[in-house]
Amino acid sequence: MAQASTVSYWELIKNGLVKDNTIFKLALSLCPSIAVTNSLKNGVLMGVAVLFVQTMVNVTISLMRKVIHPKVRLPIFMLVISGWVTITDMSMAAAFPDVYRQMGLYIQLIVAFASILARAEMFASKNQFTPSMVDGIGMGLGFLFALTVISFFRELVGKGALWGVPIVATKPLLILILPAGGFFAVGILMALFNWIDARYLKSRTAGH
């Protein structure tokens, strides 16, 4: 991973959204992309939770990087992640109790997301506050983007609704709101995302 001094803040955001997109590119943390994306509201709130945790973990690890002993860095990283996940979990339980009853377990599972630990290890522990914060925002936005697209597609086609409001009169394809349909939807959207990215890269290469 390139150091922040050689990478612009915009590149860090773009990498998180596209090049290193947690779900569509790296295929990490797929459990919530299947489990909580049967409605747009759940998908967006889960994405926001991960965005917050990713950013705050990066910021915290960056500020602590000079005092963390290399031999105990992973346990320290996990403690930091656990702390921010606990804050997020309690905040969502208080602010969105109805939604939390459906997805509370998956909020707690953020602590085990490989993408968050990986960014703490690969980037935040080696870079200063601002680049680490921007990197966390970029990776979090990429996760939020992926969950929003998946949940938008699944709720619209599977329920004929968005954010719980019916908007399509035709008969919905109910399988898309089931776990099997979730795998199907993620596979289709992942292939589409990578096809668009490949076409864009090819057009840029041809332009040069």
Topology:
Blueprint: H1 9-19, H2 30-35, H3 40-64, H4 73-95, H5 97-108, H6 114-122, H7 129-159, E1 161-162, E2 165-166, H8 179-207
Antiparallel strand pairs: 1-2
Instruction: Compute the average pLDDT.
Output: 89
Taken as a percent bin, the fraction of beta residues is: under 5%
Task: Please tell me what the overall shape is.
Answer: globular
How many structurally independent domains?
A: 1
Q: How many DSSP E strands?
A: 2
Describe the strand arrangement of the main beta sheet, using strand numbers: 1-2
How would you describe this protein?
By secondary structure, the chain is an all-alpha fold. It has one domain. It contains eight helices and two strands, in the order αααααααββα. Strands 1-2 form a two-stranded antiparallel ribbon. A hairpin with a 2-residue loop joins β1 and β2. α1 packs parallel to α7, α3 runs antiparallel to α4 and α4 packs antiparallel against α5. The chain is globular, with a radius of gyration of 18 Å. The N terminus is likely disordered.
